[in-house]
Structure formats: C-alpha cells, structure tokens
C-alpha cells in the first residue's frame, strides 16, 4: 500500500535555507491546492503503471478517518498531509467494470451545461444503468442508484474534523 500525501515540508526547508519567512506562502490555499493536485497526479500515474503491468489497484480514502493516527504511524512532520492510500496487487478476481457517469456530466464545451431538466433525465438513465449493474453483480441482493449512493454518502457528515486538522498541519490557513 502506498500513501499519497500533500507535501510542502521540503518547501518549508527551502525557505529556511534561503533565510526567508515562508508562513504566508506555505499556508496559502493556492499552495495547498498545488500539493493536493501533485499528489493526485502522482497517484494516477502509479495506478496507470500498475494496471499496465496487469496489477489491480484500489484507492483507500478511509485512512482519512483518523489522520492523527496515520500521521503518527508514518511520522509525518507539519506541512505533510496524508490524503489517501493506493493498494496494488494481483487481483484474485477481475470484476466487470462498474458503468461510469456519462461524459456529458464531466466534459463541458464552451460553457458549463446547467439545464437542470437535462441533468435529471441523464441521471435517471444512469441510475437505471447502475441499478441494473448491482442487481446483476449481486444476484438481486442490491439495487442501488448513483443518486441514492451520493446523497447517502454526503448525509453522513463524516470526517468533519479534517478542516481543523489540515490547518493544524500548516495547510490552507489563508
């Protein structure tokens, strides 16, 4: 398992080496976003490389359930924030890929599509595709929809402590 982190620790050291004060720059939302994006890009490249070698991968977001403990175990300094894990290995079974949300929901050309009725129509169709996928995969024991899963997940109010933890580690203060 690999753990991908937003990492500005070496940048803090660089500021110290150059005799400069870094707090405002290192604590900015912009650098926080850069660190997040860099980690996500590195993880995606690792996932693609692993899959190209016939390995399976699974992203593990649950390590954010206890960032304090993950940081302690990995002995992470300030300005290093664990974001997610990536397990890599040989799959015991290769399942059918879950149908993905349509391109029209993730790609917009010359402006963002905001027609609510189009979204409702497209999401209803996708819900049926997902429901059918789960019924087939579980022998009828599960019939979730994408909108149902999304709302259920977002209603849980999980990991609300993350905001304060991020600031404690030195990120996203300004």
From TrEMBL:
Nitroreductase domain: residues covered: 32-90
Molecular function in Gene Ontology: oxidoreductase activity
Keywords, in A-Z order: Flavoprotein, FMN, Oxidoreductase
Family designation: Belongs to the flavin oxidoreductase frp family.
Name this polypeptide is given: Nitroreductase
